[in-house]
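Homework help board

Subject: predicted structure for assignment chain

Our instructor gave us this sequence and asked us to write out the predicted structure in token form, then describe one feature. I got the tokens but I'm not sure how to describe them. Can anyone check?
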Amino acid sequence: MQYVSLNDIILYKTIRYMDKVAIGGLTMKKTEEQIELYTKFFHGLSNPTRYNIILALIDKEKSVGELVEELGYSQSLISMQLKCLKWCNFVTSIKEGKNIYYSIADERIVSLLQLGEIIAEGNTEQICTCSVIQVERSKMEKDVEIVEKGVANCCCEDC
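My token output:
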């Protein structure tokens, strides 16, 4: 006799329910346009510099200078990544005098990061050894070098 936990039953029923009914707009069937949009959304979070910027903004709004000092990246790299984050509506900005302060645009982004981190913690070895991710990571590191030299490469249409 195979043992089935209550959590397994709940998970199974939740998945079956999601297959049939939308939950807060989430359905299993998506158009190609929706899939393109959602993958671009997550791509906005896939860069370590952008991810670190968002983490740095969780507690309070900060200027570019404060982010440079806290994160140790160049001003040009921080500015470029903030441009992408702002374009994709991950962050917002407020001008106060000569300074521009950035903050997280939607608190649900923090919840999304927390959920992602919980899921990733359970899959560390698989994620770290994925050859596809390693190839993409190498390309991204080259892109960071290009940004440092003043040429932009980002997920937004404006760059």
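Reply (TA_rk): Your tokens look well-formed. For the description, you could write something like this. The domain at 31-148 is CATH 1.10.10.10 (Arc Repressor Mutant, subunit A). That's the kind of observation they're looking for.
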